[in-house]
Amino acid sequence: MSEKVRSTKLKFKGDKPKKKRKREAGDDEPHSGSSRRKLDDKDPETWVLPDNVNELRGPSFLIHPSEPPISINFNSTANRIMLYALDAETPEDGEPLKLLERVPTNVNQVWVITRVAGSPTVNIRTGTGEGKFLSCDAHGIVSADRDARGPQEEWTPVVFPDGMVAFMNIYEKYLGVDEVAGGALQLRGDSEEVGFAERFWVRIQHKYKKEAFEEEKKRKEGMSVPKVDEAGSNRNFQAWGAGRSVVSQEDNKVLKKAAKDGRLSEALLDRRAKLKSDRFC
Questions:
Q1: The domain 35-220: what is its CATH number?
Q2: Dist. CA 198–CA 78, nearest whole Å
Q3: Residue boundaries of the structural domains of the chain
Q4: Where are the alpha helices (DSSP H) in 192-263?
Q5: For residues 190 and 122, what is the distance between their CA atoms, to the nearest angstrom?
Q6: CA angle 52–57–59, rounded 5-degree value
Q7: Where are the beta strands (DSSP E) in 66-192?
């Protein structure tokens, strides 16, 4: 009996297994195709490219298209950011994988992007170790050794039409790959503009892309619901005299009697009398 081959697909803690869907008649027919349908058809764990900044969330794979292409890794043992060349992967069919077909094969290659509530910025945290935040100081030095997030740990992502992403720090400088002495590469955060060195491919998991799509859909649906000014409606449609609260003569008699009995202040009585006089002006 042949031994069962173990899957090498990278999984993350908390991910639920995908239930296989049986193919039904008509599945091969083309669809008029909404975005929702396309999103539902994909495996939640598939690695995809974001279409906009709101989709940048969850486990992420950051690649720079240098030659050879490199991935941004975090070495939890050395507590350092490392740039590693991606080895050419060749599947069984003999055709090498294209750059955008690559997926992380090691947890050191995975970063977790979280959005800052009420802000266009994101935090980028290591996916291994204790979860350190990617930060940049005023001198452009990039590190991932902080347990707490602050202004230096915030990044504003920019998604270009071709799908590539740039990250701007709090000092309005861009994250980029820089060559240092000896030909070694390192991350810097002091670029004034976005060029080749400052552009990255960021692959995210499909389920987070779908999550962003659902959030945007709910937001748009909420904006389409007309908001009712309850106070204004009550004043305009439940009162006499074009918005003035006017009482009848009989009501005034009741108010006067209540005042004589000590149950209503003279100030309120004066207010009612004024409203009455306004009615006949």
A1: 2.80.10.50
A2: 25
A3: 35-220, 233-279
A4: 206-224, 230-237, 249-260
A5: 18
A6: 130
A7: 70-75, 80-85, 110-115, 122-126, 133-136, 142-146, 156-159, 165-168, 174-179, 185-191
185 in Cβ contact with 179 (< 8 Å): yes
Burial status of residue 3 (CB atoms within 10 A of its CB: 0-12, 13-18, 19 or more) = exposed
In which residue are the tokens 């904006």 written? 223
Predicted confidence pLDDT, tens digits, the chain (281 residues): 444 444 444 555 555 555 555 444 444 444 444 555 555 667 888 999 999 999 999 999 999 999 889 999 999 888 899 999 987 766 666 677 888 888 999 999 999 999 988 889 999 999 987 889 999 999 999 999 999 999 999 999 999 999 999 999 999 999 999 988 888 899 999 999 999 999 999 999 999 999 999 988 888 887 754 554 545 444 444 444 444 444 456 655 655 665 555 554 555 556 556 655 655 55
Rounded Cα gap, residues 220 and 243, in angstroms: 34
Q: How many Å apart are CA 172 and CA 197, to the nearest integer? A: 16
Which amino acid, residue 223?
M
Q: ω before 68 within 30° of 0 (cis)? A: yes
Distance CA 197, CA 202 (A): 14
How far apart, in whole angstroms, are the C-alpha atoms of residue 124 and residue 130?
Answer: 13
